[in-house]
């Protein structure tokens, strides 16, 4: 088996999302795998719970109202948000 990947580095980051349309808030943790292929190109793949997903930075749909827009709060800012919406975390078990 031939692999084009020579270096993979995985990090975990939690993102919080808030829908500006309906006010729904939620949080998801992503595993981000940074890969450098043999040509030296950098690539980032996002996974949640082992499933590859699009980058949270391009997410535009709200699971509550299917509209949006979505505001993304970067890692580390979750606790600074003064809203009770973020206490609802449907993806956490
Ligand atoms: Zn919404």
Question: Brief overview, please?
Answer:
0% of the residues lie in helices and 45% in strands.
Description:
This protein has 93 residues and is mainly β. The chain has one domain. 0% of the residues lie in helices and 45% in strands. The chain contains no helices and 5 strands. Strand 1 and strand 2 form a beta hairpin. The protein is elongated. It starts with a strand and ends in a 20-residue tail after the last strand. The protein binds zinc ion. Zinc ion (ZN) binds next to loops. This is C2H2-type domain-containing protein.
Q: Biggest sheet, in brief?
A: 5 strands, antiparallel
* Gyration radius, in Å: 16 Å
Q: How many structural domains?
A: 1
Strand composition percent: over 45%
Q: Terminal Cα separation, in Å?
A: 37 Å
Structural class: mainly beta
Which cofactors or ions or other ligands sit in this model? zinc ion
Bulk shape: elongated
Q: Biggest sheet, strands in spatial order?
A: 4-3-2-1-5
Poorly predicted runs are 77-89
Q: How much is the average pLDDT?
A: 79
List the helices and strands and how they pair.
Elements: E1 5-19, E2 25-37, E3 42-48, E4 51-53, E5 70-73
Antiparallel strand pairs: 1-2, 1-5, 2-3, 3-4
The structure holds zinc ion (ZN).
């Amino acid at each position: 088996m031939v692999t084009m990947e020579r270096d993979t580095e995985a990090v975990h980051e939690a993102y919080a999302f808030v829908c500006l349309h309906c006010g729904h808030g939620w949080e998801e943790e992503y595993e981000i795998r940074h890969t450098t292929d043999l040509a030296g190109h950098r690539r980032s793949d996002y996974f949640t719970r082992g499933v590859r997903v699009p980058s949270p930075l391009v997410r535009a749909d709200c699971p509550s109202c299917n509209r949006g827009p979505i505001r993304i709060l970067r890692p580390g800012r979750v606790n600074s948000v003064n809203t009770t919406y973020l206490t609802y975390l449907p993806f956490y078990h």
